[in-house]
């Protein structure tokens, strides 16, 4: 008797009911139960058709991801789907929730599919560095055509039931309230009308026109080259769809199987599967249980209407929460609200929001010049200039104004939250909420736990993070928390490398090829080289200072570390090269040939080493949290899993050996963290902590 799969009969219709919470993942047990159920229904003369129905919140949400990388358990999913399709009696899939990956493949092997309006269908495998490996790449194009199939499987984004119906994936949209009864009625109709067994594998009309036309696939590759840069899986998915068009079904299946095996055993998929589970781990805080009561947050206050304050406010307005934004000067307030409106209007122009929506969100935003207007807010976020004295002054004033029980948060990106909290009589209600620019876009939120922050306040901030669509990572108090603290050694090494022999464009090229969207010097030009710089205090000690002194402030001045053309395309600058050569000379540094490997190791291994210190100090709960910070806040390529996961793929022993080599050459900045030494000595990894 299979504990998660049950076969029931409703007259001549058999119902194969699956109940394997939380998401009916197609684990070995579920697969076994499905095959046994279809077999029994097949041999039961009373049964004329079968309905495949999942209980709980969703139809199969895919293969069981936790099984990948482990010894395979029979029956494998390709056999299961072939067994369903080969059934002599029609099998109807009843879709609700999220029919994803192997779940949708199972549905496509059924002869008919019905869905409730709220259902979603998709192939997210590419987000796991994979491809639909149970016939999805061969059946989907036969139903929707190669272009739409490539869109779906290379984006990984689900489509609604309505769109799935239009595309031909779903045969009928049924009543939201009673899917099972509707599916059984649909199956009865099939039997009564003696409708044929519709096998997707036999369809050809949607692919015939594309046969022998490689230009279709070339055009798709070209149009998505930038988006797919560095990823292995998208190309493999495209090759499978091309095979679906040009090869007989079974040969296409063979290629799909081969390419799936290559991906599932590869480093990129291992990294992206790590990230899948890491994104779900961040919400689990060992000493704060899921049932910790949270505080009500119905009204939010934001201090500062600059770039950060404006972006932060939009998050809460987007979630339907009223926000009062306080600024010191009327023109700054007007400018800030103007930027927000223009942001919303440009989103509306792109068709991603209606003008009614724009007005609705703007109505939720109230500007003010008085801190006192925040007295009735449940949460107040300070987002002013990164200066401790100013922040301390604001928090001591806020403490007198804010109502009892209000949460006071600072958007500081470096400063000591405990010191800020000490300016109030309610340090247990003070914490950091560190957003990333542009705050209405960037998914990452570092929630900074002060030494006195109450558990309910932390639980509330984490829940709010989820509510405004962020991925919240809980971190402790130290300079720069997790992200910025690890960024400093990378920046330090990047600046040293250009004095020792590399050029800014060498360092940027190495990190760009590694997978970052851009290197540190191009990033600096984008942000502006004069952040925190002033002519009065400038000493011409660094390339950056000298460039600022020469009014090369970055993209905004058309010149920085790079020269920029009218389309902001960057090219290496001979003048900058000379400035750097002269600076090395002035500092008595003999320049030398520096390999790409040294550039990468010095920039990345120092970050990893800092990450190990962060774990040692308990500033991060687990190494995968650090990975989530860097992937969602600093452009670390997801297919490398994050700095700590990457270190394990390289081998902690190798990282340690290289750090020791650099320590011998360059000194204590490369001194390996004690934790790294210990883990290597014990033959363990960060994941074992
Ligand atoms: N396998 C194993 N565990 C899974 C899982 C899966 N497919 N999906 C979810 N979980 C766990 C998750 O780790 C969490 O566990 C709990 O379920 C709730 O998930 C051959 C190769 C369905 C949209 O990529 O996108 O099929 O943290 O917190 O926000 O071609 O889960 O509670 O211990 O995310 O409501 C393709 C992955 C697989 C879909 C629900 N399928 N899942 O979101 O809940 S590859 C996917 C999701 C494949 C075949 C191929 C989401 C969800 P815990 P949750 P949610």
Describe this structure in words.
The structure is a single chain. With 689 residues, the protein is of the alpha/beta class. It contains 28 helices and 19 strands. The strands form four sheets. Strands 12-11-10-13-14-15-16-17 form an eight-stranded mixed beta sheet, with helices on both faces. A six-stranded mixed beta sheet has the order 1-2-3-4-6-9, with helices on both faces. A hairpin with an 8-residue loop joins β15 (430-435) and β16 (444-448). The model has no long low-confidence stretch (mean pLDDT 97). Bound molecules: (2S,3S)-3-hydroxy-2-methylbutanoyl-COA. Residues 22-23, 25, 61-66, 77, 98, 100-102, 105, 124-125, 128, 130, 132-134, 136, 277, 280 line the site of (2S,3S)-3-hydroxy-2-methylbutanoyl-COA (T1G).
């Amino acid at each position: 008797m299979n504990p998660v799969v049950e076969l029931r009969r409703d007259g001549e219709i058999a119902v194969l009911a699956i109940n394997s919470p939380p998401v009916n993942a197609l684990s070995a047990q579920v697969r076994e139960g499905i095959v046994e159920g279809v077999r029994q229904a097949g041999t039961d003369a009373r049964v004329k058709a079968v309905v495949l129905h999942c209980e709980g919140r969703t139809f199969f949400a895919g293969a069981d991801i936790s099984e990948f990388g482990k010894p395979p358990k029979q029956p494998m999913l390709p056999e299961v789907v072939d067994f369903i399709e080969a059934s002599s009696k029609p099998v109807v899939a009843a879709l609700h929730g999220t029919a994803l990956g192997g779940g949708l493949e199972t549905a496509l092997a059924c002869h008919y599919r019905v869905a409730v309006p709220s259902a979603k269908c998709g192939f997210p495998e590419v987000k796991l560095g994979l491809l639909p490996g149970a016939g999805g790449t061969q059946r989907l194009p036969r139903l929707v055509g190669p272009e739409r199939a490539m869109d779906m499987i290379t984006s990984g984004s689900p489509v609604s039931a309505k769109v799935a119906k239009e595309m031909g994936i779903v045969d009928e949209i049924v009543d939201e309230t009673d899917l099972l009864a509707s599916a059984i009625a649909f199956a009865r109709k099939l039997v009564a009308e003696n409708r044929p067994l519709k096998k997707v594998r036999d369809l050809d009309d949607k692919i015939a026109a594309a046969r022998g036309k490689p230009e279709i696939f070339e055009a798709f590759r070209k149009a998505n080259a930038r988006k797919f840069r560095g990823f292995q899986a998208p190309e493999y998915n495209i090759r499978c769809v091309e095979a679906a068009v040009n090869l007989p079904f079974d040969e296409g299946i063979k290629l799909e199987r081969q390419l799936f095996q290559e991906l599932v055993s590869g480093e990129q998929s291992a990294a992206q599967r790590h990230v899948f589970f890491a994104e779900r781990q961040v919400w689990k805080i060992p000493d704060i249980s899921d049932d910790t009561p949270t505080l009500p947050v119905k009204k939010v206050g934001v201090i500062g209407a600059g770039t950060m304050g404006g972006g932060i406010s939009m998050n809460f307005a987007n979630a339907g929460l009223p926000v009062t934004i306080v600024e010191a000067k009327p023109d700054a307030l007007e400018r800030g609200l103007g930027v927000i409106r223009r942001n919303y209007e440009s989103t509306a122009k792109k068709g991603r929001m209606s003008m009614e929506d724009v007005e609705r969100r703007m109505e939720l935003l109230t500007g003010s010049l008085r801190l006192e207007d925040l007295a009735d807010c449940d949460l107040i976020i300070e987002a002013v200039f990164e200066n401790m004295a100013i922040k301390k002054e604001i928090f001591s004033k806020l403490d007198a104004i804010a109502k009892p029980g209000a949460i006071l948060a600072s958007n500081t990106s470096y400063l000591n939250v405990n010191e800020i909290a000490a300016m109030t009589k309610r340090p247990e209600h003070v914490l950091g909420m560190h957003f990333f620019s542009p705050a209405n876009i960037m998914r990452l939120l570092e929630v900074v736990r002060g030494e006195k922050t109450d558990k309910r306040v932390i639980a509330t901030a984490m829940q709010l993070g989820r509510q405004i669509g962020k991925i919240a990572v809980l971190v402790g108090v130290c300079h720069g928390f997790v992200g910025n603290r690890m960024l400093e050694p990378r920046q330090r090494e990047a600046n040293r490398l250009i004095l020792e022999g590399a050029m800014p464009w060498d360092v940027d090229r190495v990190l760009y090829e590694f997978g970052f969207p851009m290197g540190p010097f191009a990033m600096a030009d984008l942000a502006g080289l004069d952040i925190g710089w002033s002519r009065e205090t400038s000493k011409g000690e660094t390339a950056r200072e000298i460039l600022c002194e020469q009014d090369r402030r970055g993209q905004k001045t058309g010149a920085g570390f790079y020269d920029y053309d009218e389309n902001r395309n960057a090219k290496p600058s001979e003048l900058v090269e000379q400035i750097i050569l002269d600076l090395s000379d002035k500092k008595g540094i003999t320049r030398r040939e520096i390999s790409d490997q040294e550039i990468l190791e010095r920039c990345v291994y120092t970050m990893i080493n800092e990450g190990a210190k962060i774990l040692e100090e308990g500033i991060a709960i687990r190494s995968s949290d650090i990975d989530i910070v860097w992937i969602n806040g600093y452009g670390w390529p997801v297919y490398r899993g994050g700095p700590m996961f990457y270190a394990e793929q390289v081998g902690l022993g190798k990282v340690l050996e290289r750090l020791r080599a650099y320590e011998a050459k360059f000194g204590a900045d490369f001194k390996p963290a004690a934790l790294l030494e210990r883990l290597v000595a014990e033959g363990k990894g960060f994941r074992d902590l």
